Give the backbone structure.
Amino acid sequence: MQRRPYPPKRPPRRGTEHPRSRPTLKPGADSRLRRVFARIGAPTAGPFIADRFQREALDRIAEGDCLVTAPTGAGKTWIAEQAIARVLTAGGRAWYASPLKALTNAKYREFGVAFGPEKVGILTGDRKENTEAPVTIGTTEILRNQLYDAMDRGAGIDTDFVVLDEAHFLGDPDRGVVWEEVMIYLPPRVPLLLLSATIGNARQIADWLVSIRGRPCAVVQAGKRPVPLEALFLHPSGTLMPLTAGMDKNGQPRLHRKVFDYATQRRPPRLAPGRRLPPFDQIIRVLAAYDLLPAIFFLKSRADCDRALSLCNGIETDPRQTEERRRRLAELSATSEHIARHRQRSAAIRWGVAAHHGGQLPAWKLVAETLMTEGLLTAVFATSTVAAGVNFPARTVAFLNTDRFNGKDFAPLTATEIQQMTGRAGRRGMDRIGFILALPGPYMDLALAAELLAAPPSAVESQVRIDFSMVLNLLLSHSPSQVEDLLSRSLAAFAIGEKTRRLHRRRIDGPAQLLAADFRRHLAFLQEHSFVDEAGRLTADGRWASRLRVDQPLIIAQGLRTGALTTSDPPLLAGMIASFVQEKEIDENAAPPERHSELMAACLTLQGTLRPFARQMIDRGFAVRPLMPQPAATVHAWARGEDWSDVQRRSGMAEGDLVMLILRTADNLRHIRALSEPFPETAAAAGQAVDLLMREPVATDWGMEG
């Protein structure tokens, strides 16, 4: 089948259609689904019996490292819990690292129930509680930083067991380097348990770990998904039908005949005209008719998720459920004014639907997750953020596109991406079967959807790269030659070595040589500017600069040692630091920043002072982001105590993006707060600035106890 080419750009949607223009869906189902739907329901209750792969993983982690690959919901966390319990029984300590703060908070609550709250602590940058507890739950970056500190002290990290959850983040272009650093730096004496649903080259990663850690690493894979999935297609008439019907002669999934007929029509009927969103209230009515709810609908953008709520106004709900949602929302928002008057609160109460995406307040996302987990929502409209490890189960997962925006353009989904999304379907202990629903539309390639659903996960590739923070921290405890030896142990170098040996060729320049060359380039610049001496040892400036484990450590360090960033004014410092952390483009239609004279003068001085240094970095090929006045003014206003609504409106940013800007600014300030010896006044101001920034709705603990 010839696939539709993906356009490089999409014209914007122009609102939602008038209700009269929407098609009417009549619930129906292909006769072949009768047996499938008969399996819907909850499994018979009984005592928990561990699966074979779970028992095998526990045995293997007692002997060495272990990489577990199993579908979402298969019970990987149970393995971690049992292994940690074994460590605690022996009087040891454990570290559980996850990629997301939301997931870290969820595991903190979950493990607190499992082991007792006094035995579990949390470290995310934003939260630091019970840090002396034998079990630490934290983000992977915090674990990496603790490994840096341990190497600096010449001592081992204070843990006896490490779990890396969502281990496929090793291949994440932005953050994968942190996972790889942890695996390289972690002492071999500490057993390592890696958990993931989507790693296509698990054996290669295990072999690499064996090569750098010198201890066995087993690969344990789940034989099958505990809750099987059935892929469906919703015809625009309202009829549900199987998406596929067996395999073709090439071993590829074959579209069901009626689906193939639909996909090959020159002008097939649509659920909605043009590029408009479909009538979600009617789609939900079809799903309800066959007991396929609750559902998660994955949409391409935040705006679509929000607009989808307005297309649910035809949903009929039980008044008792409406009242229960109203009561639960009142409980969840009792201590949060912003949640109590959230603009999407009405849709959650009246229709049992919610949107979940990165543009929302973290507290509201937690509300949506709580209501969904408690069975109070019918549907959630989400971007791919829900797919990344958050406990957000549903009976059905629906998607409208087989492409996604990758930050630059729309590109076809990968097998790993679609499997992360569909992993939310089918709730273990609650469902005997789960469903994947393909909805027709202008950006749905049905043949590609069938192919991706049947494909194995993509291979995870090394994302290791050199930056100044890494170089400074490694030089705390290693000579330059030792650093180059560490870099030669990267996954990328191992993969090239494997290929070279397989082809019986002489060793060729590969990632290790490129990494070494890049390290020497960074080292030369640090030496030129007296952060490192000629012998490769950190100077006094280099030692305190190594504590700046942030995105732009060298620029901030230069601002501090020239005096352009030293101040005793907390809001002023917060505003100046915010100008370093903003990555996203500012909305051109946003209101101009308030021209607070003292802030603007400080920013101009900072910019002028840093310009020669930044120019030298650029001339040497190092990336330098421009200082931005809009985020500086926004964070400065918030730190000075201005109202959230006013700050958010003037910023032109979505609430979730504004929270992220403030949280990243606070994280940078925490690193400056640690520099109390060389910069006592500025360090004190940084600590006070963090306190000013971390107030509701940026920081809230309303839902932390459940």
About this structure: The two ends are 50 Å apart (CA to CA). The chain has three domains: 52-221, 272-454, 468-693.
